[in-house]
Amino acid sequence: MPEDKLPVPKKERDALTPDPQAMSKGFAQAFRLVDDVVLKNYITALPQLEVVPLDKAALGNNLGKIRLFRISEMVYERDESATYKFASVFNAVAATDSAIVTVIDSDGVKTDFYLGIRSLSEQNSTQTSYATLTNAMKGQFPGMRMENLKEPQIKTLLESIDSGALTSVSCVA
């Protein structure tokens, strides 16, 4: 009998045979991941989920990963589509392994609009992501005026957020 046609011992054959129950469980988990990550189906369940209160200790530990600026003036033409411009900005930031942070802070009379990044990488500095965001915004919206926030200002702003008034947006850049 040729060497490649020798019978496989039962013990080895059992080790090579996939467990149908384990395979079924693995497929179910893979489909859930596709639903959540690719199709973003978790978004429809967000209204039923509780808002997790902002952990002040975790905020202090992650503050170095967040950079913000306040937009004091934004200029664009009336018939111009700002949607595509923002999509371009968000795509540029996504390439730096960061997430966009938006804070709209209002006291009922005055509204301040903040935009920034949160680095999702342990290795990368926030400087590259932040420079990408600010340069992309200036390039897409010439004439925009912004004020860079320092770490104590960012901390004060984020600690003032009422966790009962949070909204999350998820999208693919």
What does this protein structure show overall?
With 173 residues, this protein is α+β, with helices and mostly antiparallel strands. The chain is built from six helices and four strands; from the N terminus they run αααβαββαβα. The protein has helices spanning 10-16, 20-38, 56-62, 82-94, 126-140, 151-159, and strands spanning 66-73, 98-106, 111-119, 145-148. Strands 2-3-1-4 form a four-stranded antiparallel beta sheet. Helix 4 (82-94) packs antiparallel against helix 5 (126-140). The radius of gyration is 24 Å and the shape is elongated.
Topology readout:
Elements: H1 10-16, H2 20-38, H3 56-62, E1 66-73, H4 82-94, E2 98-106, E3 111-119, H5 126-140, E4 145-148, H6 151-159
Antiparallel strand pairs: 1-3, 1-4, 2-3
What brief labels describe this structure?
single chain, 173 residues, alpha+beta, four-stranded antiparallel β-sheet, 6 helices, 4 strands
